[in-house]
Write a structure and sequence with these properties.
alpha+beta, C8orf32 fold, two-stranded parallel ribbon, 5 helices, 29% helix
Length: 218
Amino acid sequence: MSRLGAFLILALAFVGFVAVPASHADYRKVFKAPAGYFKKTQFLQVRERTIREYEKGYDKHPSLRVRVWYRDIFMISKANQFLQLQQIFAITNARIKYQRERTDHWATVGESLARGYGDCDDFVAAYLTAAVLLGYKKKGLWWLVGYVNSRRDGRIGHAIAIIVLDDDSVYILDNRARRVIPMSEYFLLDPVYGINLGDREIWTGILVDSVGRPRRAY
């Protein structure tokens, strides 16, 4: 995962400051993201690209890969939420192949889908973007950043998505996993900080219409 790449998403926010070990408790209670990271030049640049991308709409994106992803997401809009999560996971993983970045690059969701590859933060951005477009409550959407142990590379940075359903069940979407995992069964990440989409939006929020198309970016 790029060191600061976890700041790309429809909305970013600070969260609580109670740290918890990875072996138990609620992954949503973690250290807040450092405020200074949001002032990085690359962050400001991708902010502008993201706003332009959302204003134009995914259904009008020049890349066929992006338009197909958008279409496939809306084909599951009538399914129950757990099935939606499974399909968001499968659809996104089929469109983005994992590739670890050697240099820190912040990409928009459209850029990741168009090129067809990305690292963990690119997957998380796509998972959460799909959830927002399908009408999930932003307060139930989390971006968690931390570390995992890799047999090949040792301790490495990683990011996952946390999504809370309307029945208050909580699931993890992790591109390293083979399935959507209930949070109570997930113990892989040692968390460092988290970003909640509904807490305090600090750079861009997306309003969507009844069929999920962006109405306004601000």
